[in-house]
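Q: Sequence in, structure out?
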Amino acid sequence: MNLEDNLQIKRKLLEGALLIYPTDTVYGLGAVIDNEESLKKIYEAKSRAFSSPLIALVSSVDKIEKIAHIDEKNKKMVKELAKNFWPGALTIILKKKDIVPGIMVSNGDTVGIRIPDLKISLDIIEMAGGILATTSANISGEPSPRSYAELTDEIKSRVDIVIDGGECKIGEVSTIIDLTKSIPKILRKGAISTEEIKKIIGEVEV
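A: Exactly. Output:
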């Protein structure tokens, strides 16, 4: 993407556009987090129930504390997980701050956070202010697209911007770990194994 493209994408995102873009894992469907109408449109585009939360992709570790609480118990774990797996295919669940709209997290009190390992993703997230509400770019119930070729015409027709980044280098969803539990819990197995995580933080539930 050139500078003109970047400026146009940034303007449209900040105006509330929906975007399909490549990440390191699978293609994502995203919008800025401070526009609730755009967040509603993500659910509508996917034909997805509002009971399924979105996650927040961030452009850097320092954005975490803007959207989530990190207590003393979790601080060391977050630091070690970020050091070993970010940028990369690990989503960490933490208690959310008020800046995260309820619609984005099914009116829950937690939010999933990840830093993708792909420059184009990070550039796009930065255009959105460093935080982008995201989910996989597929109609609910269909497979997550691992390449531009796997995006359906249906989902592409429901968004404002589509960026072709070819194949995703990992091509598998992120692993999700909930750090709000007394013992960290793996909520979804993905590209990073439970064994890899245990080596870094010790005991986890599956």
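Helices lie at 3-14, 36-46, 64-67, 72-85, 119-127, 153-157, 194-201.
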